[in-house]
Amino acid sequence: MGNQTFVKELFLSGLSDLPALQFPLFLFFLLIYLLTIIWNLLIIVLIVTDSHLHVPMTRNITIPACITQIFMIFFAASETFLLTVMSYDRYTAICQPLHYIQIMSWKVCVWLMSSMWCFSFIYSFIHTFFASKLAFCESDIIETFFCDFPQLLQISCSDISINILLMFILGGFFGGWCP
């Protein structure tokens, strides 16, 4: 091995190099942190003390509202796409550090984020569009506390084969794209 220097201490730079700003910044972030904790505790206390908050106001939901919930559930796939973009960024930074600036330019980052949001919207829209084409004629009871896609397919009286096929195809496509 060649000549190496071992680091035994690290320097914590803090929030600011200006000593006059360090204490006000500390107080500001402490206040935000304490307000967040107090607000969350207030919500917990309200839910525990008022039993009316344990159940929904009504147990009915319209079909468009249910399909909107399904859109939002499928739109949560954007988190998976975002994690994929972030992992590609970290992979590039670690495995190709000298080329990182050229590979992950501002243009590439904007393109990756834009494509992530577009894929998420398209993925959600396809499922929502075909869910809106379903007909419901017999049962109007969903055995869960929110509208989920499999339960909606169970109570549908129309042909659901296209919806199941789309779940497998899109799930395989987006699952294969996001390692």
From TrEMBL:
Tree of life domain: Eukaryota
Lipid bilayer topology: Multi-pass membrane protein
Entries under InterPro entries matching the protein: GPCR_Rhodpsn (IPR000276), GPCR_Rhodpsn_7TM (IPR017452), Olfact_rcpt (IPR000725), Olfactory_GPCR (IPR050516)
Keywords associated with the record: Cell membrane, G-protein coupled receptor, Membrane, Olfaction, Receptor, Sensory transduction, Transducer, Transmembrane, Transmembrane helix
GO cellular component assignments: plasma membrane
Pfam families xrefs: 7tm_4 (PF13853)
Location within or outside the cell: Cell membrane
Residue span(s) of domain G-protein coupled receptors family 1 profile: 1-179
PROSITE patterns noted in UniProt: G_PROTEIN_RECEP_F1_1, G_PROTEIN_RECEP_F1_2
GO molecular function, one term: G protein-coupled receptor activity
Transmembrane segments: 25-49, 61-83, 103-126, 160-177
Predominant subcellular localization, coarse grouping: membrane
Protein name: G-protein coupled receptors family 1 profile domain-containing protein
Organism for this UniProt entry: Pyxicephalus adspersus (African bullfrog)
Lineage: Eukaryota, Metazoa, Chordata, Craniata, Vertebrata
